[in-house]
Amino acid sequence: MADVAARPTGKVILGTDDMHRVVDRIAHQILEKTHGAADTILLGIPTRGVPLAARLAGRIQAFEGVTLPVGALDVTLYRDDLRLRGARALGRTDLPPAGIDGRLVILVDDVLFSGRTVRAALDALNDLGRPRAVQLAVLVDRGHRELPIRADYVGKNIPTALPESVRVALTETDGRDEIRIEPEREETTGI
Amino acid sequence: MIKHLLSAADLDADGATRVLDTAAEMASVAGREVKKLPTLRGRTVVNLFYEDSTRTRISFEAAAKRLSADVINFSAKGSSVSKGESLKDTALTLQAMGADAVVVRHPASGAPHRLAGWVDGSVLNAGDGTHEHPTQALLDAYTMRARLGRLSGLTVAIVGDVLHSRVARSNVLLLHTLGADVTLVGPPTLLPVGVEGWPVKTSYDLDAVLPTVDVVMMLRVQRERMADSYFPSAREYARRYGLDAARLARLPDHAVVMHPGPMNRGMEIAPSVADSPRSTIVEQVANGVAVRMAVLYLMLGGSR
Q: What is the pLDDT of residues A97-145, one digit of tens each?
């Protein structure tokens, strides 16, 4: 997960207004591609995927009056890099009461990078039920995939160099809406 | 996270809260169709039990299995221990088998501490003599927090055979760390020497303590550890320190009744109290699995 540095550095890629436009566009694309988003569930991956999923659901509600169930899916226990790093505190997993069986699950995350988080999320879903299909919505695709995974909905493609870091700030978690690109990652923030 | 969990005092307030928060997430696994996580795949957990145990051993085994660890159960009965093998030699055997964690219960206080010096993996104390039982204290704290919403500022009475109770020692340490106030209640013969130095209040009068507590934790009278007579008779003990329906009525409405098990029904706790909705005894067992999953994950899940 991209952490926001205490003192922002680097270059702003998207400001508040642009970010809202991007979220609006993803919401429209979801409605279009799913023909009205029937039987669809939005599952955010903590930390910033969760408020993003809520925002998408809010926009979809505003555009077409459809209320989508929103949940959270923590993938920490399914990660493949646990042994490389210390055991981490867990995020919240919170599924809609009706479950995910037979539904279209759209995973929502802030940044798509190596694809390992999404791989972990797919494994976690496998233990929770059997969705009809799984799609992926991300705010930023920064490239450098290490697994054969792609997103169905992309807010913005940002070409990056490997040592650079993409930091997404959201009002809900960070007090402002903004996407920055920073020259060097101080610590590994493998996504 | 700490390498070994030998005492409840190994955890500071942040560490203990982290265990409880992690346990809250682990608890949701019990309600799923697939009650298994891949987190400790390929790790080996040895349950080394030199003393009888039902719930602790099963609870650790269930916790390790739900995290996909391989579990080797070792009980002293039926092993080379009955041929006279020492704890150290057993430890070296486990070491050679590549145990990532050893969960140990032993009748001698301090045995897990010695073991930690002989093996490379983590050692988890599952009860040593009359010393400590830290995961029991964690699951008790988890249960209190789940029922009452907080730990800081709670008043907890721990009642009965404190002298022989590792559960009481670990609970006193952990509850003190987490900001609860503990009162130990029991006959003078069953309160340990030196209890003045513990961060607790003490009382010999259960009836005086009951109206002001949030939690009353009854301890089992451990007759197997009693060489002398600590009280005149079981009936007299039950009359003065047993929790019966009349005493239950004296508790504040929100207060809960806990017992680490196994219970002597009719001695320290009346059957009607043990089975009442205010008793958390069955919850404690269920919470034990979640708490032990959290401990195993936090100790073994990361890099070594």
A: 989 999 999 999 999 999 999 999 999 999 999 999 999 999 999 999 9
Q: Closest approach of chain A CAs to the CA of B83, in angstroms? A: 39
Which chain B residues are closer than 8 Å to A78 by Cβ?
37-39
Q: Do B303 and A88 touch (CB under 8 A)?
A: no
Whether A153 has its CB under 8 Å from any CB of chain B: the answer is no
Query: For the residues B239-247, what does the mean pLDDT come to?
Result: 95
As a whole number, mean pLDDT of residues A4-18 equals 78
Q: Which CATH number is B8-132+285-300's, of 3.40.50.1370, 3.40.50.300, 3.40.640.10, 3.30.1490.20? A: 3.40.50.1370
In a domain, A190, yes or no: no
Task: Report which of B184, B69, B186 is spatially closest to residue B121, judged by C-alpha positions.
Answer: B69
Asked if the domains at B8-132+285-300 and B134-281 fall in one CATH topology, the answer is yes
CATH number of B134-281: 3.40.50.1370
CA B40 to chain A, closest CA, distance in angstroms equals 9
Question: Whose structure tokens read 């005493």?
Answer: B247
Domain boundaries, chain B: 8-132+285-300, 134-281
Find the residue in B nearest to A86 (Cα): B302
Concatenated DSSP letters of B165-216: -HHHHHHHHHHHHTT-EEEEES-GGGSPTTGGGSSSEEES-HHHHGGG-SEE
| Inter-chain touch A83–B25, beta carbons under 8 Å | no
- Domain-located, residue A4: no
From chain B, the residues in CB contact with A88 under 8 A are 302
ipTM of the shown complex: 0.81
- Domain count of the fold of chain A: 1
In chain B, the residue whose alpha carbon lies closest to the alpha carbon of A123 is B38
- Catalytic center residues of B: 55-56, 83, 105, 133
Residue for token pair 């269920």: B286
Q: Kindly identify which residue of chain A lies nearest to residue B298, measuring between CA atoms.
A: A87
The range of the structural domain enclosing residue A142 comes to: 11-80+89-182
The tokens describing B87, both together, are: 């704890």
Residue B224 is classified by DSSP as G
**A178-182 and A165-169 beta bridge pairing:** antiparallel
pLDDT band at B2 (very low <50, low <70, confident <90, very high): confident
- SS3 of A112-164: ECCCHHHHHHHHHHHHHCCCCEEEEEEEEECCCCCCCCCCCEEEEECCCCCCC
Is residue B157 within 8 A of residue B217, CB to CB? The reply is: yes
pLDDT tens per residue across span B260-300 = 989 999 999 999 999 999 999 999 999 999 999 999 999 99
What's this model's pTM, rounded to 2 decimal places? 0.90
Tens digits of per-residue pLDDT, B125-165? 999 999 999 999 999 999 999 999 999 999 999 999 999 99
